[in-house]
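Box 3.1 A note on notation
Throughout this textbook, protein chains are presented in two layers. The first layer is the amino acid sequence; the second is a token string describing backbone geometry. Keep the layers aligned when reading.
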Amino acid sequence: MTFRLFIYYSALYGGCAAFVAWMLGQVAAGAEMESPVARAAVKGLLLGMLLALGLALVDGLWNFSLGQVVPVVLRTVLAVVVGTVGGLVGGIIGEVLYGLLSYFLMVGWVITGLLIGASLGVFDVLSAAIRQENLRGARRKLVNGVLGGAVGGVVGGVLLMLLRGVWSGVFRDKPSDLLWSPSASGFVALGMCIGLSIGLAQVILKEAWVRVESGFRAGRELILSREETTIGRAEACDIGLFGDQAVERLHARIVREAGGYLLADAGTPAGTYLNGARVDEPAPLHSGDMIQVGNSVLSFKESHKRAGG
């Protein structure tokens, strides 16, 4: 998947998840909950759960292969748990603060957004910690998600309140509810903004990435957030180059070190090539370098800030 598609699907699934949460919330609202805080808690919980589920699936399926089924499932379950808690806490806090000033409701959606954003990086942090790897890349993904989710919560909250004002004027004879307007448009706008902002933050704030220039699923891009990224024909490889018989099951590795990234061959007969030269020892990577494994070619990129630093 390209970065453009990742951002697009993040926004799309954010909006779809919010719409489903809105419909379920309508059913829950019909249960005659007397407490406004309880109603807000249910609504926030549904939004956090479904939005985290949708975004976790987009993130997990970005570079999916059959050998990664278990990690994707674990990533999704953990994200749903964190997102659900985020929505629940955000809904309660927002409703409580709304009693003081209406605009304080956005505080709840900011909390919801940042915890949904954090949910996408929790698995990476825990996984790296368990494997005793450097946490830099996983921690950066977590922070980027938090920043994107918080911004999405602010922007989406503003749009939700503006749309609520519009629909309240159109449907004057209907009961007013700050979250569930006569239309689902405000809630969908909130979900899309959170999804879009999280996707944008992950892509814009990335440090290093690889693009498949030729070979299996050419055009896809992968952010390098792990200490070691594997390349090969095996289903468990991070960058799978299936169908290329010149590629070994484990062909090469991209390893993060304090000063940057290294390309290392996995002891293959055909070898790994960097800018046309065979790699015998781990070689440093620079932005724009071309990596050849078998008949496939990948380009390595770094952000200007990192490359210049």
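The first helix runs from residue 3 to 29. The radius of gyration is 22 Å.
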